[in-house]
Amino acid sequence: MYADQGIFYRRVAESAEEGNRMNYFGIGLSICLRFIALNLLLFFLGCSEASIEVDDLASLPQAISSLPVGIVIEPEQSVVEPKQYDGTSLRGLTGPNTHTWDRTLTVSALDSDVQVIEYGVFRWYDGQWIDVTDQQKPYFAEEFAEVFDCEDAILRVDKNYTSELFGNISNVPREIPVFYRWYFIGETEGKRVRGEVTLADLPIQY
Protein backbone atom coordinates (compact mmCIF):
# COMPACT_ATOMS: atom_id res chain seq x y z
CA MET A 1 0.00 0.00 0.00
CA TYR A 2 2.83 2.36 0.83
CA ALA A 3 5.36 1.25 -1.77
CA ASP A 4 7.88 3.94 -2.68
CA GLN A 5 6.29 6.17 -0.04
CA GLY A 6 9.45 8.23 0.34
CA ILE A 7 9.39 9.21 -3.34
CA PHE A 8 5.65 9.88 -3.19
CA TYR A 9 5.89 12.11 -0.10
CA ARG A 10 8.68 14.12 -1.68
CA ARG A 11 6.60 14.64 -4.83
CA VAL A 12 3.57 15.73 -2.80
CA ALA A 13 5.70 18.13 -0.78
CA GLU A 14 7.27 19.57 -3.92
CA SER A 15 3.83 20.09 -5.45
CA ALA A 16 2.54 21.81 -2.33
CA GLU A 17 5.59 24.06 -2.06
CA GLU A 18 5.21 25.03 -5.69
CA GLY A 19 1.63 25.95 -4.91
CA ASN A 20 2.80 28.18 -2.06
CA ARG A 21 5.16 30.09 -4.35
CA MET A 22 2.23 30.87 -6.64
CA ASN A 23 1.03 33.36 -4.01
CA TYR A 24 3.21 35.88 -5.74
CA PHE A 25 1.04 35.49 -8.84
CA GLY A 26 -2.38 35.18 -7.22
CA ILE A 27 -3.76 34.17 -3.85
CA GLY A 28 -6.66 32.26 -5.39
CA LEU A 29 -4.43 30.15 -7.64
CA SER A 30 -2.11 29.35 -4.75
CA ILE A 31 -4.97 28.06 -2.59
CA CYS A 32 -6.29 25.98 -5.49
CA LEU A 33 -2.93 24.31 -6.14
CA ARG A 34 -2.42 23.63 -2.45
CA PHE A 35 -5.79 21.88 -2.15
CA ILE A 36 -5.06 19.82 -5.29
CA ALA A 37 -1.78 18.63 -3.78
CA LEU A 38 -3.43 17.71 -0.49
CA ASN A 39 -6.26 15.81 -2.15
CA LEU A 40 -3.76 13.94 -4.34
CA LEU A 41 -2.09 12.83 -1.13
CA LEU A 42 -5.31 11.23 0.09
CA PHE A 43 -5.98 9.62 -3.29
CA PHE A 44 -2.60 7.96 -3.63
CA LEU A 45 -2.58 6.77 -0.04
CA GLY A 46 -5.61 4.71 -1.06
CA CYS A 47 -7.36 5.29 2.24
CA SER A 48 -11.09 4.99 2.79
CA GLU A 49 -11.45 8.78 2.73
CA ALA A 50 -9.69 9.18 -0.62
CA SER A 51 -12.74 10.92 -2.06
CA ILE A 52 -12.78 13.61 0.63
CA GLU A 53 -13.07 17.16 -0.67
CA VAL A 54 -11.52 19.84 1.49
CA ASP A 55 -14.01 22.49 0.48
CA ASP A 56 -12.53 25.95 0.14
CA LEU A 57 -14.08 28.18 2.82
CA ALA A 58 -17.59 26.71 2.67
CA SER A 59 -17.54 25.28 6.19
CA LEU A 60 -15.62 28.08 7.90
CA PRO A 61 -17.56 30.47 10.14
CA GLN A 62 -19.20 33.32 8.25
CA ALA A 63 -17.16 35.82 10.26
CA ILE A 64 -14.03 34.46 8.54
CA SER A 65 -15.19 33.26 5.14
CA SER A 66 -16.91 36.54 4.28
CA LEU A 67 -13.75 38.60 4.68
CA PRO A 68 -11.57 39.56 1.70
CA VAL A 69 -7.99 38.28 1.55
CA GLY A 70 -5.50 40.79 2.91
CA ILE A 71 -2.97 38.59 4.72
CA VAL A 72 -0.59 36.14 3.03
CA ILE A 73 0.37 32.94 4.87
CA GLU A 74 3.40 31.02 3.58
CA PRO A 75 4.13 27.61 5.19
CA GLU A 76 7.62 26.20 5.09
CA GLN A 77 5.92 22.92 4.13
CA SER A 78 2.28 22.30 3.28
CA VAL A 79 2.73 18.57 3.90
CA VAL A 80 4.25 17.95 7.34
CA GLU A 81 6.02 14.69 8.12
CA PRO A 82 6.08 13.29 11.68
CA LYS A 83 9.33 13.56 13.60
CA GLN A 84 10.20 11.17 16.38
CA TYR A 85 10.47 12.96 19.68
CA ASP A 86 13.72 12.16 21.45
CA GLY A 87 12.70 13.27 24.94
CA THR A 88 11.23 11.25 27.79
CA SER A 89 7.99 13.14 28.39
CA LEU A 90 6.00 15.72 26.45
CA ARG A 91 2.44 16.82 27.25
CA GLY A 92 2.08 13.66 29.31
CA LEU A 93 3.14 11.35 26.47
CA THR A 94 6.14 9.08 26.80
CA GLY A 95 7.81 6.28 24.94
CA PRO A 96 9.83 5.78 21.74
CA ASN A 97 6.78 6.06 19.46
CA THR A 98 5.93 9.64 20.38
CA HIS A 99 5.97 11.91 17.31
CA THR A 100 5.49 15.61 16.69
CA TRP A 101 4.41 17.60 13.65
CA ASP A 102 6.05 21.01 13.76
CA ARG A 103 5.43 23.77 11.27
CA THR A 104 6.88 27.15 10.36
CA LEU A 105 4.58 29.88 9.06
CA THR A 106 5.50 33.22 7.52
CA VAL A 107 2.85 35.94 7.68
CA SER A 108 2.83 39.16 5.65
CA ALA A 109 0.47 41.93 4.54
CA LEU A 110 -0.89 41.63 1.01
CA ASP A 111 -0.82 45.26 -0.14
CA SER A 112 -1.28 47.52 2.92
CA ASP A 113 -0.29 47.46 6.60
CA VAL A 114 -2.53 45.15 8.64
CA GLN A 115 -3.26 45.15 12.37
CA VAL A 116 -3.66 41.50 13.36
CA ILE A 117 -6.52 41.10 15.80
CA GLU A 118 -6.88 37.32 16.09
CA TYR A 119 -5.73 33.96 14.75
CA GLY A 120 -6.44 30.30 15.35
CA VAL A 121 -6.68 26.85 13.80
CA PHE A 122 -9.37 24.45 12.56
CA ARG A 123 -9.19 20.70 11.97
CA TRP A 124 -11.02 18.88 9.15
CA TYR A 125 -13.27 16.30 10.79
CA ASP A 126 -16.38 14.50 9.55
CA GLY A 127 -16.78 16.76 6.54
CA GLN A 128 -16.36 20.10 8.25
CA TRP A 129 -13.82 22.40 9.88
CA ILE A 130 -13.79 22.13 13.70
CA ASP A 131 -12.21 24.84 15.83
CA VAL A 132 -9.31 23.25 17.73
CA THR A 133 -7.63 26.42 18.94
CA ASP A 134 -6.65 26.28 22.62
CA GLN A 135 -9.95 25.88 24.53
CA GLN A 136 -11.67 26.88 21.27
CA LYS A 137 -10.73 30.49 21.87
CA PRO A 138 -8.69 32.45 19.30
CA TYR A 139 -5.31 33.95 19.98
CA PHE A 140 -5.29 37.74 19.95
CA ALA A 141 -2.95 40.57 19.01
CA GLU A 142 -0.79 40.24 22.12
CA GLU A 143 -0.04 36.58 21.43
CA PHE A 144 0.61 37.26 17.75
CA ALA A 145 3.07 40.06 18.55
CA GLU A 146 5.01 37.77 20.88
CA VAL A 147 4.93 34.56 18.83
CA PHE A 148 5.77 36.23 15.50
CA ASP A 149 8.04 38.95 16.92
CA CYS A 150 5.81 41.59 15.33
CA GLU A 151 5.77 44.98 17.05
CA ASP A 152 2.23 45.94 18.09
CA ALA A 153 0.96 43.02 15.94
CA ILE A 154 1.09 45.28 12.88
CA LEU A 155 2.11 43.61 9.62
CA ARG A 156 4.15 46.10 7.63
CA VAL A 157 4.05 45.91 3.84
CA ASP A 158 7.11 44.26 2.29
CA LYS A 159 8.12 42.69 5.61
CA ASN A 160 7.76 39.03 6.62
CA TYR A 161 7.05 37.68 10.10
CA THR A 162 8.02 34.06 10.74
CA SER A 163 7.41 31.73 13.64
CA GLU A 164 8.18 28.07 14.23
CA LEU A 165 4.93 26.90 15.77
CA PHE A 166 4.95 23.82 17.96
CA GLY A 167 2.61 21.42 16.25
CA ASN A 168 0.72 18.33 17.23
CA ILE A 169 1.93 15.38 19.23
CA SER A 170 0.79 11.75 19.25
CA ASN A 171 1.97 8.24 19.97
CA VAL A 172 -0.97 6.60 18.20
CA PRO A 173 -0.41 5.19 14.67
CA ARG A 174 -2.41 6.94 11.95
CA GLU A 175 -3.35 5.59 8.54
CA ILE A 176 -4.60 8.82 6.99
CA PRO A 177 -3.38 12.43 6.99
CA VAL A 178 -4.93 15.02 9.28
CA PHE A 179 -5.77 18.42 7.81
CA TYR A 180 -5.48 21.73 9.67
CA ARG A 181 -6.34 25.23 8.55
CA TRP A 182 -4.70 28.18 10.23
CA TYR A 183 -6.49 31.51 9.86
CA PHE A 184 -5.55 35.10 10.64
CA ILE A 185 -7.84 38.14 10.83
CA GLY A 186 -6.70 41.75 10.75
CA GLU A 187 -7.80 45.30 10.07
CA THR A 188 -6.53 47.58 7.35
CA GLU A 189 -7.81 50.88 6.02
CA GLY A 190 -10.98 50.60 8.07
CA LYS A 191 -11.94 47.07 7.01
CA ARG A 192 -11.32 43.53 8.21
CA VAL A 193 -9.32 41.09 6.10
CA ARG A 194 -8.25 37.48 6.42
CA GLY A 195 -5.47 35.08 5.53
CA GLU A 196 -5.36 31.30 5.83
CA VAL A 197 -3.40 28.19 4.95
CA THR A 198 -4.18 24.46 4.97
CA LEU A 199 -1.58 21.94 6.13
CA ALA A 200 -1.60 18.13 6.11
CA ASP A 201 0.02 16.08 8.87
CA LEU A 202 1.22 12.80 7.36
CA PRO A 203 0.51 9.49 9.14
CA ILE A 204 2.75 7.72 11.62
CA GLN A 205 3.78 4.39 10.12
CA TYR A 206 5.58 1.62 11.97
Q: How would you summarize the topology of this molecule?
A:
Elements: H1 5-21, H2 27-45, H3 62-65, E1 71-75, E2 79-80, E3 83-84, E4 99-109, E5 114-125, E6 128-131, E7 139-140, H4 141-147, E8 154-155, E9 161-170, E10 178-188, E11 191-201
Parallel strand pairs: 2-11
Antiparallel strand pairs: 1-4, 3-4, 4-9, 5-6, 5-7, 5-8, 5-10, 10-11
Explain what you see.
- By secondary structure, the chain is of the alpha+beta class.
- It is built from 4 helices and 11 strands, in the order αααβββββββαββββ.
- The strands form 2 sheets. Strands 2, 5, 6, 7, 8, 10 and 11 form a 7-stranded mixed beta sheet that branches. Strands 1, 3, 4 and 9 form a 4-stranded antiparallel beta sheet that branches.
- Mean pLDDT is 75; it is low at 1-26, 28-32 and 40-52.
Label this structure with key terms.
206 residues; alpha+beta; 7-stranded mixed β-sheet; 11 strands; 35% strand; disordered N terminus
